[in-house]
Design goal:
The complex is a heterodimer. Chain A has one domain: Beta-grasp domain (Ubiquitin-like (UB roll)). Helices cover 16% and strands 27% of the residues of chain A. Chain B is an alpha/beta fold. Chain B has a single domain, classed as Cytidine Deaminase, domain 2 (3-Layer(aba) Sandwich). Helix content of chain B is 22%, strand content 39%. Classes of the chains: A alpha+beta, B alpha/beta. Strand 6 of chain A pairs antiparallel with strand 4 of chain B, so a sheet runs across the interface.
């Protein structure tokens, strides 16, 4: 499939792949992190509850990286994307 | 989950090494066609909590990325995490439920009393995130090198 100007790749963590047709990566067209994640959830609605809380905010433990950069230290979900960017969904883990 | 006794022993050993603090790390492996996690290797990590490490643990997103890279080198994925409960039972605590990540990961807990590992159990978060459910541990023979 030829890449268009705004095609980015989302990397899906292992336990969420079953809700995304078993894929480890999903290509979407998006120009920000937010539109990329929303496009992902539109295509695979079962992912929504895993990524977003009751207030429709990304869950506390869900971290998003563009390449090697945590968007939290940049513009958050408004971080702009360029064609070919790789967006990773990365959990942080904690407990008692 | 499915794994080998040497891997379970390595989790117990990490619990002993970290005692009286909580030790933690990642389970690397594959997911079977019926959704079972098959653990083939461990990736030890450092408990990133800055205080109360006897009762809490934390693995950062960067820790996850490091474990994921280590998994990929072995043709594996991150399929879960493990941590120890010093002087507490091998059951998920309230904090474990409140701070749980994605359903589908296997969470292994080993209880360690006075430095000696005791019960080791496996759990998975319910899809509605309300509780952890016990997962059976089936052991297979270690693979020949």
């Amino acid at each position: 499939m030829p890449a268009t100007d705004t095609t980015v790749t989302l990397r899906i963590p292992t336990p969420l792949r079953s809700a995304a047709d078993g894929q480890s990566t999903v290509e979407v067209e998006a120009d920000t992190v937010d539109t990329a994640l929303r496009a992902l959830v539109d295509r695979y609605p079962d992912l929504a509850d895993n990524l977003y809380d009751e207030d429709d905010e990304l869950r506390q433990f869900v971290n998003i990286y563009v390449g090697d950069d945590d968007v939290r230290f940049g513009e958050g979900v408004e971080t702009p994307l360029e064609a070919g960017d790789e967006v990773s969904i990365v959990p942080s883990i904690a407990g008692g | 989950m499915e794994t080998t006794e040497p891997i379970l022993d390595a989790i117990r050993q990490h619990g002993t090494d970290a005692y009286p603090e909580e030790g933690c790390g990642f389970l690397l492996g594959t997911v079977t066609d019926d959704g079972d996690n098959r653990v083939a290797a461990l990736h030890r990590a450092t408990n990133r909590r800055t205080e109360n490490r006897e009762r809490r643990y934390e693995l950062t997103a960067d820790d996850y990325r490091e474990a994921d890279a280590a998994a990929k080198e072995q043709g594996l994925d991150v399929v879960g995490v493990y941590h120890s409960h010093p002087n507490h039972p091998a059951r998920p605590s309230e904090t474990d439920v409140e701070e749980a990540t994605f359903p589908g990961y296997t969470y292994v807990i080993v209880s360690v009393h006075d430095g000696t590992p005791e019960a080791l159990t496996a759990w998975t978060l319910a899809p509605d995130r309300s509780e952890f459910r016990r997962e059976a541990i089936s052991r297979r023979a270690p693979e020949a090198p």
